[in-house]
């Protein structure tokens, strides 16, 4: 499942909407919507995300969050390490080989380490 797919499923569940109802309303097949939720389809395009935003009638921050999640939801990522430090290639290859073995706590720790550090306000 992708971050966008997880959010989509949560929104449907919160509102009691079936996959079929949503698919019909936004003009896609239930098969496509299911594949998108489960990460078997690529990152959704901007037009699709806009349909979802309008369907759920989300605004401002929630709409931006849906677009951000769509942007980071490509289930088949390619990492180009050409020209980078050899350790970058090593990291990318180790992660590719072992990502399926990582537990949720380790994934969260890695994500937090890769998140940009927020600047602290100057006193």
Features:
123 residues, mainly alpha
Descriptive notes:
- Helices cover 62% and strands 0% of the residues.
- With 123 residues, it is mainly α.
- It folds into 2 domains: 69 residues, lambda repressor-like DNA-binding domains (434 Repressor (Amino-terminal Domain)), CATH 1.10.260; 38 residues, no CATH class.
- Helix 4 packs antiparallel against helix 5.
- The longest helix has 13 residues.
Offer a quick outline of the entry.
With 123 residues, this protein is mostly helical.
CATH architecture of the largest domain: Orthogonal Bundle
Q: What is the CATH class designation of the largest domain?
A: Mainly Alpha
Taking all residues together, what is the mean pLDDT? Answer: 91
Share of β-strand residues: under 5%
Reconstruct the topology from this structure.
Layout: H1 3-15, H2 19-26, H3 30-37, H4 46-56, H5 60-71, H6 86-98, H7 104-114
